[in-house]
């Protein structure tokens, strides 16, 4: 049931090539896409083939088996049709520099996150409000905000009750676990990490409007990221960004040994690799996840056994047909 990459690129073009269908406006003359036209661009994992300033749209890149560059989603059907998008999506690619951000820079003085490690457990206790100096945009998105014409997110950011006991010495499971919707990880600065999909099963980072920190709240008020954020700790380094719910660390986009930015081609199907990283104050050669600029951005599947899943997420995992 895996969608072929070439076919998914074609489907992505059909969905997003006509900007009006994605809820966007018109693009500039130099990058205009004729409504109803189909891009013949074939997406590859090789970043050297992408147009300057562009990233491939990840629409359709979902799989029932671990597949590099795709997302092993517990959800296989999506009820909603997305109206998100805009002129930054052009055929099979999107241009981050052209995408609008929700206005505002709201500080959350009551943000509180504590991370401790003892007796083999990494405990994260947080109210899921970003800790200073991380800010958010103004949500719900205001009608006066230019972003409102593309995304009318009506949700307000509200405090959550996060209490996670993750394995401090995580181990690779016998087989990977699919990624449910909702929180799959947590940053050290108090923000939840969701997988790369929006409620229509499309590339959330490309389609949805986020704030200047690339975050936004869901229907429960939980503020979260779907991909790398300029406000994440260590996002553009090789340092620790946060933890996945299986206990493995999520690290920035750079390789510690070479300093180069990593891409999907450097990682396994769960979007991770085994290499030296700083872990609990020591340089350790261990498995870890790596952020990438392109889809699926954070995780492709859980390499270890996830803990702390909500009852709804547990149901998603249990219903997975893989």
Structure, explained:
By secondary structure, the protein is mainly beta. It has a domain at 113-318. The protein is 7% helix and 20% strand. It has helices at 5-16, 204-207, 311-318; strands at 55-56, 89-90, 93-94, 113-118, 121-126, 162-167, 183-187, 192-194, 215-217, 223-225, 240-244, 249-251, 272-279, 282-290. The strands form three sheets. Strands 9-10-8-7-11-12-14-13 form an eight-stranded mixed β-sheet, with no helix packed on it. Strands 1-3-2 form a three-stranded antiparallel β-sheet, with no helix packed on it. Strands 4-5-6 form a three-stranded antiparallel β-sheet, with no helix packed on it. A hairpin with a 2-residue loop joins strand 4 and strand 5. It is globular, with a radius of gyration of 19 Å. It starts with a helix and ends with a helix.
Features of the shown structure:
14 strands, 3 helices, eight-stranded mixed beta sheet, mainly beta, globular, disordered N terminus, 322 residues, three-stranded antiparallel beta sheet
Concise account of the structure shown:
The protein has helices spanning 5-16, 204-207, 311-318; strands at 55-56, 89-90, 93-94, 113-118, 121-126, 162-167, 183-187, 192-194, 215-217, 223-225, 240-244, 249-251, 272-279, 282-290. The protein is mainly β and 322 residues long.
């Amino acid at each position: 049931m895996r969608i072929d990459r070439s076919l998914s690129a074609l489907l992505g073009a059909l969905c997003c090539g006509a900007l009006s269908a994605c809820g966007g406006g018109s693009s500039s003359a130099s990058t205009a896409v004729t409504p109803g036209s189909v891009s013949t661009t074939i997406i590859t994992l090789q970043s050297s083939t992408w147009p300057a300033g562009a990233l491939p749209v990840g629409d359709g890149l979902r799989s029932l088996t671990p597949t590099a560059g795709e997302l092993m989603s517990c959800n296989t059907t999506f009820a909603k049709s997305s109206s998100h998008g805009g002129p930054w999506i052009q055929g099979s690619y999107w241009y981050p520099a052209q995408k609008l951000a929700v206005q505002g820079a709201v500080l959350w003085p009551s943000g509180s996150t504590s991370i401790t490690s003892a007796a083999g457990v990494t405990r994260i206790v947080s109210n899921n409000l970003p800790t200073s100096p991380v800010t958010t945009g103004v949500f719900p998105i205001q009608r006066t905000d230019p972003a409102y014409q593309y995304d009318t997110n009506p949700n307000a950011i509200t405090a959550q009750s996060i209490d996670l006991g993750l394995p401090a010495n995580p181990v690779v499971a016998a087989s990977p676990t699919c990624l449910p919707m909702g929180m799959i990880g947590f940053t050290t600065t108090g923000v939840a990490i969701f997988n790369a999909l929006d409620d229509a099963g499309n590339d959330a980072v490309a389609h949805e409007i986020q704030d200047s920190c690339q975050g936004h709240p869901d229907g429960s008020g939980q503020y979260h990221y779907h991909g790398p954020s300029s406000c994440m700790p260590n996002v553009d380094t090789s340092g620790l960004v946060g933890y996945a719910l299986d206990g493995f660390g999520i690290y920035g986009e750079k390789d510690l040994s070479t300093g180069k930015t990593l891409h999907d081609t450097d990682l396994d199907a769960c979007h991770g690799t085994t290499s030296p990283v700083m872990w609990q104050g020591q340089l350790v050669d261990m498995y870890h996840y790596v952020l990438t600029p392109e889809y699926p951005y954070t995780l492709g599947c859980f390499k270890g056994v996830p803990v702390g899943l909500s009852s709804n997420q547990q149901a998603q995992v249990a219903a997975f047909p893989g």
